[in-house]
Amino acid sequence: MSQPHSSSNAEQRPSKGGAVSDLAIELRGINKSFGPVRANRDIDLKVRRGTIHGIVGENGAGKSTLMSILYGFYTADSGEILVNGQPAHITDSRHALQLGIGMVHQHFMLVDNFSILENVILGAEDNALLASSLSKARKELKRLSDEYGLSVDPDAIVQDVSVGQQQRVEILKALYRGADTLILDEPTGVLTPEEADDLFRVLNVLRDQGKTVILITHKLREIMAITDFVSVMRQGQMVATMPTKDTSPEKLAELMVGRRVLLRVEKGSAHPGKPLLEVKNLVVADDLKVVRVKDVSFSVRAGEIVGIAGVAGNGQSELLESIAGMRDQLSGDVVLNGHVLSLEGDDGAHRARLAGLAHVPEDRQTEGLVVQFEEWENNILGYQHDPAYGRGLLDIAAARRQAEERMHKFDVRPANPRLKTANFSGGNQQKIVLAREMEQDPSVLIVGQPTRGVDIGAIEFIHNQIIKMRDAGKAILLVSVELDEIRSLSDRILVMFDGKIVGEADPATATEGELGLMMAGIGADGHAARSGAGAGPAHAVGGDQP
Amino acid sequence: MIDFKRHLGALAAGIGAVALLAGAALADPALIYDLGGKFDKSFNEAAYNGAEQWKKETGGTYHDLEIQAEAQREQAVRKFAQAGYSPIVVTGFSFADTLNKVAPDFPNIHFVQIDSVVDQPNVQSVVYKSNDASYLAGVLAAKTSKTGKVGFVGGMDIPLIHNFFCGYKEGFMATNKDGQVFENYTGTTAAAWNDPTTAGELTKADFDKGADIVYAAAGASGLGVIQAAKDAGKMSIGVDSNQNYIAPGSVLTSVLKRVDVTVYNAFKDGDAGFKPGVVSLGVAENGVGLAMDDNNKSMITPDAQAAVDAAAKGIADGTIKVHDYNTDNQCP
Amino acid sequence: MSARRPLPRWADVALLPVLNLVLALIVFSIFVLLIGQNPLQALAIMINGAFGYGEGVGFTLHFATSFVFTGLCVAVAAHAGLFNIGGEGQAYVASLGAIAVGFLMDHTVWWLVLPVAILASMAVGAAWAFIPGYLQAKRGSHVVITTIMFNFIASSLMAYLLVYVLKPVGVQEPSTANVVAAGKIPQLRQFFPWFGGAPLNMTIIFAILALIGVYILIWRTKFGYALRTLGHSPSASLYAGISNSRMIIIVMMISGALAGMVAVNEVLGVQSRIVIDVTAGYGFVGIAVALMGRNHPIGIALAAVLFGALYQGGLDLQFYMPAITRDMIVVIQALVIMFTGAMEGLLRPGLESAFMLYSPRQKADAVARETVGTES
Fold first, then answer.
1. Which of A65, B45, B165, C19 is the most exposed place for a label (fewest CB within 10 A)?
2. Prior bond to A414 cis, omega within 30?
3. ipTM value of the model?
4. Are B87 and B118 in a shared domain?
């Protein structure tokens, strides 16, 4: 029962004859253990054909394991998989594709310097003669583009197109291979709000044309906006499946965490004092000597949180690093507590700390922590000069004692300072960094991506800590690609695009739409801030993303 | 597969052998090579060839050893001395310091030091007047060269080789005082003895400067000189052993340093014929000289032959005194 | 996707190297069989030669002393993420410092000469390593390339000095004059005749001190903390306000200073003078020693003794088993380096699986960790 528009591979699917189930995918009693860790426990899941089905859950809840089983990466210990009502034993991803299951990974699997057309047919060439494959594929690609509203230029080189376009290529790849069911893993993480809206439009078209979409995300807002059904996983179990219209974000969050969660950050109004951090006409280049921060000026006052919104790769990282003393500016000044940061030597971060700055870096794995170290060693990272940790010789006992105290205070689990840092979860690693930086009692705190890869429960804790710092009279600069986070935490929002501050907004009044336009470089008057607005972020993603 | 019993037996035998060898007083001769190793295509190998020739002719046995580090020199000599080997021949000037320390501890053992002088009652020092032989090569080169320019490619840039160059230059200039000699060395490490590529390049450079004969005193690197000369249709001069046969018609002659003869004689004389003191082998003693054979006969003009013979006679009777670099670290 | 658990620490630092060593010996035995000799007998001679009598032990420890210095030289740099291949040249040039002190203080007493000579050769070694360190820190010239080049420069410089400047007139060998009195560091055989003719000398005390010192430096000081931060993650070190460029220069100098001490051991301890290639190969063996010793002082001490034993036992083997040439000894050294260094991972997967077979709990932990890693 191939759909009229499905591709040439459709005949291979084992759904010929027999009654067609209205379930595209059914999982029955799936179990998967890794030793004593039961990653999936008796999972039942029914995904109806022609629906968008969301799956939510915290990190480690078992979503990825479940999808890996469905896509053939893992084999379940027990349980049954039915595809279109037929039992299937999926052994690898090629097999999954034959069954019509396609996956769009969080990190794209594209060859950057190939054209879109070449990427689409890569690995699915009909025969050795590339030319004939290409011309056939071109027609097929055009048909798919038209049918699902996925317009792309087949001859564009992947690295030259925007992230949103690259994601379309991934979707087209799956469709070209005859996918009827598409699994999307955190698809909006790298997109601007506008691009995300585009994606949702496409997903709606796919559904309307009879395709099935499984959407894995941690953004409850997206679940509410786009899905028909939603399943919640917690600790390896499927705790609920329901029609989306019957639930609410609060209820979903509660199901995910197992307790009531405050999704909205509760904070009082700010009482800003004098400016503690001033950035004046700052110009900063990246490692390749490309200017990334272009004449940026702003200030952050005591007792306020200034949020910098923007799509990743628009100069926020370089801005943060420059303020933190890790990257020399080409011109302009960073003023901390009235001290102009000097440029001598490559230990600027040390001088910035002496001037009262604390820094939670964007990338805790490569900057904020040395993951090979034991936890207590990371507890002194950046403050190793402090005489509290000894003079010359390291006072290991003192450092461990302090580390353990902080671990208890910030609820880091397990609270064992001798454990290797790499063995802590993302949320706990982030708490280790936060504990270290906040406990210094700095006057200025700059924070990059405070909740990237962090569980909902920990997010709440981290947000509250940041608010607490503000209420204690610290000046806080927050950079995040999560617009929701910026909006809920900030007292003022600055929008950064292509290295410039393109606008300032009041979080109380600005709508997401307004901010989204600014983030895309389109001013209030509707003009693009510069031609080819999409190119900036696209390049940035090619170069900057881990 | 493996007969363990037999091997365990051998194991015990091995340990036994250690004890046995250490205590036994064998009167076999021994030979210790310098760091360059047994098969260096130069004088260590010449020493080996002399020992092998003795073995073949007399049916005797000898024991040899290659050291791996400076610190092992003394140990190696002591081991042989303790085991009672005699005479013990060591090749290379680097052993001189060691023999000065070890020889007094073993007054009944005889040592032969090649290429350096050790003043001990039980040591015979054999030195070669390579400057004399090189002088003859210089005379021959001057008489044969059509351009009046010749080259010299040394191995390692050390005094031993400087002495070759000085003699060569002196002989050449004495015959053709308007001529020119180009001086080159392949390197400063032990690798310089085994770098024919560099030696070949240096030779080509000399040819480009107008030279038509290049003298190689560079161990195995010299093969690069001979090859380059052959390829360019020019001439080369070999060293140590007779290398005329390598490229007949291109190798003008070879400056001989009869290390093989020395080892052969030392082994043959044994303890009975051992004579302490310095043996300086020059042209007169036939310890050094130029190789003349069928391979290069056609290249030697009667005039050149006469000049070489006259120089050899002069050196032998003392009327020609070839300067020794080692006396003042300088070439005249 | 098969999850494996990293080996228990004792297996990683002890069992694996021993198994790798056994593997190297097995392969060597095949070679020995091929040339028609008895491998067990060869092994017995080697072990007996290295440890069976006083002189053998003395030689083994003498070589080990030099290998400890060069091994630590490589290890300290490695902890900072730098690959210093220049220990050879640093040690060679440092011999100038050692001999200078030997001559200047020849009229004093050895226990004054020894510490001063150590300091002088450390200073010269550090100075020689400073240049590649500076070029890496300030100009980005890769330290691997520059240290290799500096080995050649060192050997050319030393050959020049020995041939044209330092060689006494009338001596044929390129070498300096000899120190004759206090400049000769006493060899232990003067106090313990058991050591026979072995050149083992007082410098070994400094090798032991260096092992302890490096341990304290790397793991117990703030400087070592900064050094390890740089080695694990240059970006984290930048974040922590550590001056990476200053750190690179200082670490290279410490590394060079450690290599420099070889000069005292060889020049004043054995030769009483500098001869051509007096440090021949020790710097390169140091790389293997550090690799095999996992850059840890205890491992380095053991690996240094092993390589000392290979040098010393190798000579005995050559002596008592004439069919075994020096080239065969080099082969076994190469095999040990290959199996314990380059192919160190050969047995690791199998050993890890073996451990998991006998310890299901560990297997579970491993898989759990891997699972957490894939969820994000």
1. C19
2. yes
3. 0.82
4. yes
On whether residue B181 sits in a domain, the answer given is yes
Which residue in A has a C-alpha nearest to residue C359's C-alpha?
Answer: A35
Strands A52-57 and A78-83: unpaired
Rounded Cα distance between A204 and B258, Å, is: 96
Q: How far apart are CA B90 and CA B77, in angstroms?
A: 8
Cβ neighbours of A37 in C, within 8 Å: 364, 367-368, 371
Nearest residue in B to C271, CA atom: B71
Q: Is A426 within 8 Å of A440 (Cβ atoms)?
A: no
**C-alpha distance from residue B304 to each of A159, B139, B226, B310 (Å):** 77, 8, 21, 10
Closest Cα of chain C to A37: distance in Å?
6
Is A313 part of a structural domain of the chain? yes
Question: Residue B30 is part of which domain span?
Answer: 21-128+262-269
* B257 Cβ contact partners less than 8 Å away, ≥ 6 residues apart: B43, B46, B128, B130, B133, B239, B240, B287, B288
Q: How far apart are CA A456 and CA A256, in angstroms?
A: 8
First to last CA, chain C: 17
Are B241 and B184 found together in one domain?
Answer: yes
Would residue A504 count as lying in a domain?
Answer: yes
Q: What is the DSSP letter of A201?
A: H
A309 and A206 together in one domain: no
- The verdict on residue B28 lying in a domain is yes
pLDDT (tens digit per residue) in B66-113: 888 888 888 899 889 988 898 999 998 889 888 998 999 999 999 999
Same domain, A287 and A246: no
Domain boundaries, chain C: 54-312
Q: Which chains touch B (3 or more CB pairs under 8 A)?
A: C
Q: Are residues A510 and A449 in the same domain?
A: yes
Return the ∠ at Cα A230 (arms to A229 and A232), rounded to 5°.
160
Angstrom distance (rounded) from CA C39 to CA B4 = 12
**pTM, 2 dp:** 0.78
Strand runs (DSSP E) across chain C, as ranges?
A: none
Three-class secondary structure of residue A355 per DSSP: coil
* Domain of A143, in residue numbers: 108-177
What CATH number did the domain enclosing B205 receive? 3.40.50.2300
Smallest CA–CA distance, residue C368 to chain A, in Å, is: 6
Our CA-based measurement puts residue C52 at a distance from the nearest CA of chain B, in whole angstroms, of: 10
Does residue B289 fall inside a structural domain? no
Dist CA A486 CA C34 (whole Å)? 74
Are B and A touching by the rule of 3+ CB pairs within 8 Å? no
With respect to residue A328, please indicate whether it lies within any of the assigned structural domains.
yes
The CATH number of the domain holding residue A512 is 3.40.50.300
Please count the structural domains in chain B. Answer: 2
Low-confidence ranges of chain C (pLDDT < 70): 1-6, 13, 170, 172, 356-376
Q: What CATH code would you report for C54-312?
A: 1.10.3470
In a domain? residue A227: yes
**Three-class SS state of A472:** coil
Q: In the Cβ-directed half-sphere of C188, how many Cα atoms lie within 13 Å?
A: 19
Opening angle at CA A240, ends A239 and A242, nearest 5: 170
Q: Over the stretch C150-187, which tens digit does the pLDDT of each residue have? A: 999 998 899 889 888 888 776 767 888 888 888 889 99
- The dihedral through the CA atoms of C180, C186, C188, C194 has a sign that is positive
Other CB atoms within 10 A of residue A124 CB: 15
